[in-house]
Design goal:
Strand order of the largest sheet of chain B: 1-3-5
CATH architecture of chain A: 2-Layer Sandwich
Structural class of chain A: alpha/beta
Order of helices and strands of chain B: EEHEEHEH
Strand order of the largest sheet of chain A: 7-8-9-10-12-11
Oligomer: heterodimer
CATH class of chain B: Alpha Beta
Number of helices of chain A: 9
Shape of chain A: globular
Radius of gyration of chain B: 13 Å
CATH topology of chain A: Heat Shock Protein 90
Helix content of chain A: 25-40%
Helix content of chain B: 40-55%
Strand content of chain A: 25-35%
Number of strands of chain B: 5
Radius of gyration of chain A: 20 Å
CATH topology of chain B: Transcription Regulator spoIIAA
Largest interface: A-B, 25 and 29 residues
Number of helices of chain B: 3
Order of helices and strands of chain A: EEEHEEHEHEHEHHEEHHHEEEE
Structural class of chain B: alpha/beta
Strand content of chain B: 15-25%
Largest sheet of chain B: 3 strands, parallel
CATH class of chain A: Alpha Beta
């Protein structure tokens, strides 16, 4: 998907972005390849260009790519060709967690702008979860015990991100996704710290002198009571999986060089490159438009909900 | 007997922080070491996640042994909280057995 070229003399990595990007496995694999190349080449500069001026990014992919480039820019210079800079400028708004406000489905969630938040500390986590809970309680027609569901799932995701990555800040994004006939709330939490693989491999090596494969590490991390902490733990991931299964949602975890997905089926596989951190995406079904809900695709607007279908 | 109100360690009705759990555990240990029975009162708490319960229940059992359970009572916890307490307690008991072997 992304095209890479490096100039060793200039110590520079050139990245070409395709015309269209969707938030999918191929995109995530490209992100991991980008991070791998940036690390391997220890380049001082990354120049990001495009295949075609008319770049078309989905909101979530624009936000994700922007976050990744911001992360890479911590240690090197990152330059974007002008239309790309414009795309990010138009599509992605970045702010601290304290700016996260009540979600207005009509005004915000359907807008073309992807909001990204940098969350730090327990207060911002609690606030974020609370706002999402309010949103779900107002708009959800499918989830039972929505509050319990969200607090547990998002709470466990944030808790893992802060307690295992050794990072003080994590990135958070959400989107409302239309996949006929269903509407989903998509939530992504990404940290650029220690990966699940790194932590499990270290733990296994130190405790039992074992060398573990990446996919084995993820499988181990999902086992009830398995934790790299010295003490009680290891219930967050299995609890998350149980809740996602209950609502027939989807879960995607990308950590190091391994991707785990849970949807119609559970899959675990090696990715093309190495993602320097852990990214968790959760897709929660909100409505089924066939049964209750009228969505005008042309106007990108929710029209009505039938009284007898609620 | 001493009552520990979980609400005093968190803001709102949701216990999601490991750090808050650690603070609570510190107070529990202080009392238990004096041979005092503790009642953990969950009134006003609607939701917890396992990260909060790990220090409060799990680490306590791992550090003090399963005998500590005689000194801990639970009050005003809803069904979902009890389910999670059981999950963390049972996991800690298994780990404790492994440690003793």
């Amino acid at each position: 998907m992304f095209y890479f070229e490096d100039d060793k003399k200039e110590n520079c990595l050139f990245v070409t972005i395709p015309k269209e990007i969707k938030y999918d496995f191929e995109f995530l694999a490209s992100i991991s390849e980008l991070m791998k190349k940036a690390q391997e080449l220890s380049c001082k500069e990354i120049r990001v260009s495009y295949e075609n001026k008319a770049v078309n990014f989905s909101k979530m992919s624009a936000g994700y790519l922007y976050n990744t480039l911001r992360f890479l820019a911590r240690k090197r210079n990152v330059f974007l060709r002008k239309p790309l800079y414009q795309v990010f400028n138009e599509k992605v708004q970045h702010s601290g967690g304290e700016k996260f406000r009540k979600i207005d489905l009509e005004k915000e969630a359907l807008s073309p702008i992807q909001q990204c938040y940098q969350i730090s500390g327990d207060n911002e986590v609690e606030r974020t979860v609370q706002i999402l809970v309010e949103f779900i309680l107002e708009h959800n027609l499918i989830l039972e015990n929505a509050k319990e569901f969200l607090i547990t799932t998002i709470g466990e995701i944030f808790s893992n991100a802060f307690n295992h990555s050794d990072e003080k800040e994590v990135f958070f994004m959400y989107d409302i996704e239309f996949r006929k006939p269903d509407i989903f709330l998509v939530i992504n939490v990404t940290d650029y710290g220690k990966t699940i693989i790194h932590n499990v491999q270290n733990y296994q090596r130190e405790m039992y002198g074992l060398e573990m494969e990446s996919t084995e590490c993820i499988r181990w991390a999902f086992g009830k009571g398995n934790t790299t902490r010295r003490g009680s733990g290891g219930y967050g991931l299995p609890t998350l999986v149980n809740y996602i299964n209950e609502i027939q949602g989807e879960l995607l975890i990308f950590s190091g060089d391994t991707i785990y997905t849970l949807g119609k089926e559970e899959r675990l596989f090696s990715s093309e490159g190495n993602f320097s951190g852990t990214s968790v995406t959760m897709r929660i079904p909100l409505f089924n438009t066939n049964s209750a809900f009228m969505y005008d695709e042309r106007r990108n607007k929710i029209v009505s909900i039938d009284l007898d279908k609620i | 007997m001493k009552e520990i109100l979980i609400k005093n360690y968190i803001a709102g009705d949701t216990a999601v922080s490991y750090e808050d759990g650690k603070k609570c555990q510190y107070d529990i240990v202080k009392s238990v070491e004096q041979g005092e029975k503790i009642i953990l009162d969950f009134s006003g708490i609607d939701y917890v996640i396992t990260a909060f319960l790990n220090p409060v229940i799990g680490d306590l059992i791992l550090e003090k042994g399963d005998g500590v359970m005689k000194f801990i009572g639970i009050k005003n916890a809803n069904e979902s909280i009890i389910k999670k307490i059981k999950l963390v307690r049972d996991g800690a008991l298994v780990k404790r057995e492994d440690l003793e072997e």
